Amino acid sequence: MSRPVVAVVGRPNVGKSTLFNKLAGKRIAIVEDTPGVTRDRIYTEVEWLNKYFTLIDTGGIEPVSDDIILSQMRNQAQLAMEMAHVILFVVDAKAGLTPADKEIAQMLRKTKKPVLLVLNKVDKGKTPDTYYDFFEIGLGEPIMIAASTGLGIGDLLDEVIANFPEGADTEYTEDIVKVAIVGKPNAGKSSILNNILGEERVIVSPIAGTTRDAIDTYFEHGEDKYLLIDTAGVRRKSKITEDIERYSVIRSFTAIERSDVALMVIDATQGVTEQDTKVAGIVHEEGKGCVIVINKWDLVEKNNYTMNEYVKEIRNSFPFLLYAPILFVSAKTNQRMNKILETVKLVANEHAKRVTTGALNEVIGEAVLLNQPPSDKGKRLKIYYAAQTGVKPPNFTLFINDKELMHFSYQRYLENKIRENFGFEGTCIKFNYKQKERR
């Protein structure tokens, strides 16, 4: 059976994201005292008493609304309810029972899922005056907590795992490929995620900046397991006017840090922008696997040279990402979308590849014979020995006589020789040098 899923739902501003962060053990959801801040579902893995489960934070539910974002938030919460094994219905002890709470409770009763009524914002040692009012909605005895201080969290988690279905997979799994979907706003990142998953799991709208949080989605494709991270688009700093947007930009960067492979999504109709170059630079500097995805290819007028010209532009814009494969896709028409996971899997394997020391030294030795190392003032660079000392990204340590003699151009030459012989498509290669003068 699959990993248990626990959804946190409730009307806006009752403390769902604060509870989500407390259960996750880190600040994942954006917390701001503004109703409707969390608009997409965001996912994380939580452990309690050696049992692991997936936790989903949802946008606040407004039961009746014509607003495009609020109505889609309601759809997202309903989807979360459908896929959840246990639902945490968060209500506000200070605000008391509201008509919206009653309507949400009615929606939840129809799910036939275990629902835990979570009474948040409770003062330590006090039963709030509103406590008994919540029995009216017919979801049992409220579990009293204070998400901001951690009061009652242990008791809540005990109840959560007690309600997991029999045979649920609560063991820890390490073989998950983490994929960050990054790029500037409105490039189609959420549409690509939805296409891969085959369902509307992330809000998609033409409003730039709709995705504010980095959204974690566990996904299995055949025998392969993935964690897809859809990030908030990176805007220019001058356009970031809200604190919420600022958090989102930071989240995009941290999503890259967490990933194994980054899908660099570029809008084909706009070409490469300054922001794309910055994001690509972060992907490279962080040593992540990279796949460059040119989305909205269906909207580009083409001739026999269009794709080649576009590839040339990408390579000129990102000279440090020459190793990254480029895919031309359309999430809207499904063009080449099947290539994305296939390429991600290839790059993830290359990112984690290890080569034998004997084979590596053979390649380095042959490279040195073909092209003599640089020299300075009569002293020539000598490479005594090489070893792969790390993966994700591949790290190579070279034992040499003088670090000052290793020019960048010769390092690039060695990198090219390593790639010619071992591949490493889609991943950068890092070099370390140990100085060792041989007597």
TrEMBL record:
Question: Could you state one GO biological process linked to this protein?
Answer: ribosome biogenesis
Q: Which SUPFAM superfamilies match?
A: P-loop containing nucleoside triphosphate hydrolases
Annotated GTP 1 binding sites: 10-17, 57-61, 120-123
Task: Note the InterPro entries from the entry.
Answer: G_ENGA, GTP-bd, GTPase_Der, KH_dom-like, KH_dom-like_a/b, P-loop_NTPase, Small_GTP-bd
Binding residues annotated for GTP 2, in chain numbering = 183-190, 230-234, 295-298
Query: Locate the EngA-type G domain: which residues?
Result: 4-168, 177-352
Q: Which UniProt keywords apply?
A: GTP-binding, Nucleotide-binding, Repeat, Ribosome biogenesis
The GO molecular function terms of this record are:
GTP binding; ribosome binding
Its function, per the record, reads:
GTPase that plays an essential role in the late steps of ribosome biogenesis.
State the NCBIfam families in the record.
GTPase_EngA, small_GTP
Q: Which family does it belong to?
A: Belongs to the TRAFAC class TrmE-Era-EngA-EngB-Septin-like GTPase superfamily. EngA (Der) GTPase family.
Subunit info here reads: Associates with the 50S ribosomal subunit.
> What's the protein here called?
GTPase Der
Organism classification, top ranks? Answer: Bacteria, Bacillati, Bacillota, Clostridia, Peptostreptococcales
